[in-house]
C-alpha cells in the first residue's frame, strides 16, 4: 500500500463518514450542564449537553458516569466528525476515564503527526486515532478540539451543579 | 565618506537594475498592455513564487487580498537601508539620524505622490486598522470638548448619525460602533444587495442634516464590489458630513487619488500592496487633520512639554507618537515605485482580465455560488465563494493540498457574510503576479472539491 498523501491522512474515511452521519447530534431537551464553544477564526460552533448518571456496579463504587452526551453545531468536517467520534467514545464512561481520554486526545493533537508515544493512549482512543493526521496541520487542531473543549466545560459545570443554559446563539 | 543623498539612501536596487529605487520615472513606464512575457519577468521579482509547497506542488498564491507577496526590490531596499543608514528618525544629531529622517520624509513624499496627496496629508500608522481607529478615537476625543464655532470636522453629539455600510471589514465597523456608543450617536448603515453591491436607494434616508460621518470601503474584501465613491462623497458633502474611505483593498489594484476622489480621510496598508507589514497610512485633507486632536501622545509629537501641559506638533507629526518604523516606510515607498513603474492603470487592466477569467471559470461549477457581482466591471479580483455542502475550511485544505493558497473563514467581515446568507466563505484573490494558468488550475481543483467531500447528490 502506498503512503497516503497529506490530504488522505487528514480526511480518513472514518472522519468523512462521521461528518456525513454525525452521532449524538441531537440535542437532548434535559441536561445537567451545557456548554457552547466557538472557534473565533472560522465561526464554527458546538453546543453540547451532558447528563450524569451513577454507576451501578459495586466495583465502580457509585462514581459519576457520563450518562448522556448530545450536541448540535455547524462547522468543518474535522470539528463535526471529532465531536461525533468523541460522543461515542465517552458515553457511559466514568468521569475519571473521560478526563483521561480528553488528555490522551490532547496529546494526539499536539504530536505534530509523529504519533503517540504511549500505546495505552493509542488503545484508549480507538476510532479517535483517525484524527492523528490533523496534528500535522496546526491550523486545524483547534477544529478537532472544539467538541472536547465543550465536553470539558460542560462536565466541570455539571460537577459544580451549574445547569444554566450556555450563552451564545442557540444551535 | 560624504553624506548620502536621500536618492542614494532609498535607491539601493539601482545597482541591480530591477525595480527602481527612487522610482523609475512614471512617464517612462511602458504603456502597452502587460504581456505574458512581462508577467514572467514580474514573477521573477518574487522569489517566493518559486517555492514548492505541499507534496512538491508549485505554489499558486491566490491570497493577495489578505497580504501581497513582496518583490525582492522591497526587501533589498529595507536591507540596504538597515545596513547603511538606520537610526531613529527625528532624533539624533548624528549622520545616521539625519539620513534616516531624510529617508523617512522622502518615503512620505513618495507615498503622498502615489495617492495624489501632499506629504503633510500622510500620517504613517501601523496600517489600515490603526488609521481607522485613530480617526474614530480622535473624533470621540473631540466630541468630549466644547464645540468649536466652525470646523471642518464634526463635533458629534447624542442623536447625531454615523453611517457605515453592511460591506465593511470589522476594522471600519467596530471603531464606529464604539464611537457611537461613546457619543450617543446613532449608527446606521447602507445595506448590501444580494450580489454584495450597496443599495444606494437608501442613501437619501440615511444622509441628512443629522449625519456627521459617512465611512465606507472603496472595495469589499469579500465581494470585491467597488463602491461608487463619487456618489457617496456627493451625498455626504451635501449635508456637510465627513467622509472616511477604507482603501485597503482598492489601493493595491486601482489607481487611487484621494484628492480626486474627494474624501476627507482615508486608510491604507502597505502589506496589501507589495510593501512590508506593520506600516500603512492615514490620509487626511489638511484642514481636517489640522482640527483633529491626537490620540496617542508621547515622544516626537509634541513641541513644548511642562510637568502639567504639552503643545502638539502640526500634522502629520501630531499623529506619529513614538519611534517611527523608518525601515518599513522605505520598503513601502520602494513597493509604490515598483507599482508606479509598471503603471497602476496597466495593472488594473490586466487584473480585470484575470478576474473575468476567474469569474467565468467558477460560475460554471455546479454547487459553487459566487458571493459578489458577476460583472467584472463592478468589482476587483477578490472572489468569495460558497461551496454547497462543503465547509470553507475543508475546501481550503483540499486546495492547499494542491499548492493553492486561498483564504477561508469570514475574512473579518461577518455582517456581509450574514447578509449573503452564509457564515463563511472560500476566497481566491488575484495579484499582479498571477497567471491565466494558475486561474485555470484553481478552477479545476475547485471543481473537484464537492465530489471529494461527497457533497454532490
Ligand atoms: C477592506 C479592508 N479593510 C481593512 C483591513 C485591515 O487592514 P490591516 O489588517 O492591514 O490593518 C483589511 C485587511 O484585512 C481590508 O481588506
Verbal overview:
The complex is a heterodimer of chains A (171) and B (457). In chain A, a hairpin with a 4-residue loop joins strand 1 and strand 2 (44-54). A three-stranded antiparallel sheet of chain A has the order 1-2-3. Chain A starts with 5 loop residues before the first helix and ends in a 12-residue tail after the last helix. Chain A is globular, with a radius of gyration of 16 Å. Chain A has one domain: Sufe protein. Chain: A, CATH 3.90.1010.10. Chain A is of the alpha+beta class. Chain A is built from six helices and three strands. In chain A, helix 2 (13-20) crosses helix 3 (77-90), helix 3 packs parallel to helix 6 (138-159) and helix 4 runs antiparallel to helix 6. Chain B is α/β, with parallel strands linked by helices. Chain B folds into two domains: 99-339, Type I PLP-dependent aspartate aminotransferase-like (Major domain) (Aspartate Aminotransferase, domain 2), CATH 3.40.640.10; 344-452, Aspartate Aminotransferase, domain 1. Chain B contains 15 helices and 17 strands. Chain B has helices at 6-10, 36-44, 72-84, 95-114, 128-144, 174-183, 203-206, 229-238, 258-261, 286-291, 326-342, 344-363, 392-401, 414-419, 436-452, and strands spanning 52-53, 57-58, 60-61, 122-125, 161-165, 186-190, 211-217, 242-246, 265-269, 280-284, 302-305, 310-312, 368-370, 382-387, 404-405, 407-409, 425-429. In chain B, the strands form five sheets. Chain B has a seven-stranded mixed sheet, with helices on both faces. The longest helix of chain B has 20 residues, at 95-114. The termini of chain B are far apart. In chain B, 52% of the residues are buried. The A-B interface holds A 5-7, 10-11, 16, 19-20, 41-44, 74-78, 137, 140, 143 and B 54-55, 391-394, 397-398, 401, 408-410, 414, 423-424, 452-454. The structure holds pyridoxal-5'-phosphate. Pyridoxal-5'-phosphate binds at residues 127-129, 169, 171-172, 217, 221, 246, 248-249, 269, 271, 280, 412 of chain B.
Amino acid at each position: 500500500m502506498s503512503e497516503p498523501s497529506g490530504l488522505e491522512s487528514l480526511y480518513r474515511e472514518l472522519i468523512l463518514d462521521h461528518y456525513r452521519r454525525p452521532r449524538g447530534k441531537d440535542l437532548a431537551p434535559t441536561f445537567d450542564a451545557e456548554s457552547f464553544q466557538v472557534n473565533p477564526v472560522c465561526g464554527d460552533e458546538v453546543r453540547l449537553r451532558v447528563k450524569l448518571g451513577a454507576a451501578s456496579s459495586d466495583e465502580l463504587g457509585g462514581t459519576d458516569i457520563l450518562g448522556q452526551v448530545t450536541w448540535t453545531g455547524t462547522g468543518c468536517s474535522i470539528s463535526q466528525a471529532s465531536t461525533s467520534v468523541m460522543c461515542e467514545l465517552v458515553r457511559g464512561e466514568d468521569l475519571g476515564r473521560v478526563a483521561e481520554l480528553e488528555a490522551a486526545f490532547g496529546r494526539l493533537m499536539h504530536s505534530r503527526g509523529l504519533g503517540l508515544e504511549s500505546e495505552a493512549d493509542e488503545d484508549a482512543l480507538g476510532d479517535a486515532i483517525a484524527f492523528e493526521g490533523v496534528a500535522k496541520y496546526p491550523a486545524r487542531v483547534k477544529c478537532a478540539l472544539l467538541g472536547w473543549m465543550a465536553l470539558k466545560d460542560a462536565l466541570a459545570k455539571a460537577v459544580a451543579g451549574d445547569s444554566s443554559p450556555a450563552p451564545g446563539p442557540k444551535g | 565618506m560624504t553624506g548620502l543623498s536621500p536618492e542614494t539612501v532609498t535607491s539601493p536596487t539601482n545597482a541591480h537594475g530591477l525595480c527602481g529605487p527612487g522610482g523609475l520615472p512614471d512617464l517612462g513606464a511602458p504603456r502597452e498592455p502587460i504581456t505574458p512575457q512581462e508577467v514572467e519577468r514580474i514573477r521573477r521579482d518574487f522569489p517566493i513564487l518559486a517555492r514548492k509547497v505541499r507534496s512538491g506542488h508549485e505554489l499558486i498564491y491566490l491570497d493577495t487580498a489578505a497580504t501581497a507577496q513582496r518583490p525582492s526590490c522591497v526587501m533589498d531596499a529595507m536591507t540596504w537601508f538597515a545596513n547603511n543608514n538606520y537610526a531613529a528618525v527625528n532624533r539624533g544629531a548624528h549622520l545616521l539620524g539625519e539620513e534616516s529622517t531624510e529617508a523617512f520624509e522622502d518615503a512620505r513624499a513618495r507615498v503622498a505622490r502615489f495617492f495624489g496627496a501632499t506629504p503633510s496629508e500622510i500620517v504613517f500608522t501601523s496600517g489600515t486598522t490603526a488609521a481607522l481607529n485613530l480617526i474614530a478615537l480622535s473624533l470621540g476625543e473631540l466630541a468630549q470638548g466644547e464645540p468649536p464655532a466652525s470646523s471642518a470636522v464634526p463635533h458629534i453629539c447624542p442623536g447625531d448619525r454615523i453611517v457605515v455600510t453592511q460591506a465593511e471589514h470589522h476594522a471600519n465597523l467596530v471603531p464606529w460602533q464604539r464611537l457611537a456608543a461613546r457619543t450617543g450617536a446613532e449608527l446606521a448603515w447602507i445595506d448590501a444587495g444580494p450580489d454584495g453591491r450597496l443599495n444606494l436607494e437608501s442613501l437619501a434616508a440615511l444622509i441628512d442634516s443629522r449625519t456627521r460621518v459617512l465611512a465606507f470601503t472603496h472595495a469589499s474584501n469579500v465581494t470585491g464590489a467597488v463602491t461608487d465613491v463619487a456618489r457617496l462623497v456627493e451625498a455626504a458633502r451635501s449635508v456637510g458630513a465627513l467622509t472616511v474611505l477604507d482603501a485597503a483593498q482598492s489601493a493595491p489594484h486601482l489607481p487611487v487619488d484621494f484628492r480626486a476622489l474627494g474624501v476627507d480621510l482615508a486608510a491604507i496598508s502597505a502589506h496589501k500592496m507589495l510593501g512590508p507589514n506593520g506600516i500603512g497610512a492615514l490620509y487626511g485633507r489638511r484642514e481636517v487633520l489640522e482640527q483633529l486632536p491626537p490620540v496617542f501622545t508621547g515622544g516626537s509629537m509634541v513641541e513644548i512639554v511642562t510637568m502639567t501641559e504639552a503643545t502638539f506638533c502640526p500634522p502629520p507629526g501630531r499623529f506619529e507618537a513614538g519611534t517611527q518604523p523608518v525601515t518599513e516606510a522605505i520598503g513601502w515607498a520602494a513597493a509604490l515605485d515598483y507599482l508606479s513603474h509598471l503603471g497602476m492603470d496597466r495593472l488594473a487592466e490586466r487584473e480585470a482580465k484575470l478576474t473575468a477569467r476567474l469569474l467565468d471559470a467558477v460560475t460554471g461549477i455546479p454547487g459553487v455560488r459566487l458571493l459578489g457581482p458577476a460583472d467584472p466591471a463592478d468589482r476587483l479580483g477578490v472572489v468569495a465563494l460558497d461551496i454547497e455542502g462543503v465547509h470553507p475550511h475543508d475546501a481550503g485544505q483540499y486546495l492547499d493540498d494542491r499548492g493553492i493558497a486561498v483564504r477561508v473563514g469570514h475574512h473579518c467581515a461577518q455582517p456581509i457574510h450574514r447578509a449573503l446568507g452564509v457564515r463563511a466563505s472560500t476566497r481566491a484573490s488575484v495579484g499582479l503576479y498571477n497567471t491565466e494558468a494558475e486561474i485555470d488550475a484553481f478552477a479545476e481543483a475547485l471543481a473537484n472539491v464537492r465530489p471529494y467531500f461527497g457533497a454532490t447528490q
